[in-house]
Amino acid sequence: MEKEAHLANLIQIAKADGVMHPMESLFIQGLSARMGIDSIAFQRVASSPELASKMVPTDDETRIRHFCELIVLSQVDFNSSSEEKELLEEIGRRMHIPEEKVLKLEKYLSENKLPDDYTELIDKL
What we know:
- By secondary structure, the chain is an all-alpha fold.
- 69% of the residues lie in helices and 0% in strands.
- It contains seven helices and no strands.
- The longest helix is centred in the middle third of the chain and has 16 residues.
- The radius of gyration is 13 Å and the shape is globular.
């Protein structure tokens, strides 16, 4: 359920500005494959992401990794819209990530790549 919740968040971010850019689609498909989500589950969540679980990861590293992936997705088309930013803030609140940390993560990830070790990012911000 946690993986499907993350997939739903990714899809909602990609669609927030009204158009899913091909780079966003590729990014989501790659993450979905890495998470081991099969094509049936992918199609179910993609068709109705608003109906997917809203489960939040319980451990800090997974929660921050998922949120960082959402931020990178919002930037992958080189156009982070106001709708995407608003949705990121909403998801951040749901994931218990303070708004100031959301802003720091957005800034950090616009200037750096995703880290291999997310605990270092948790400590840094």
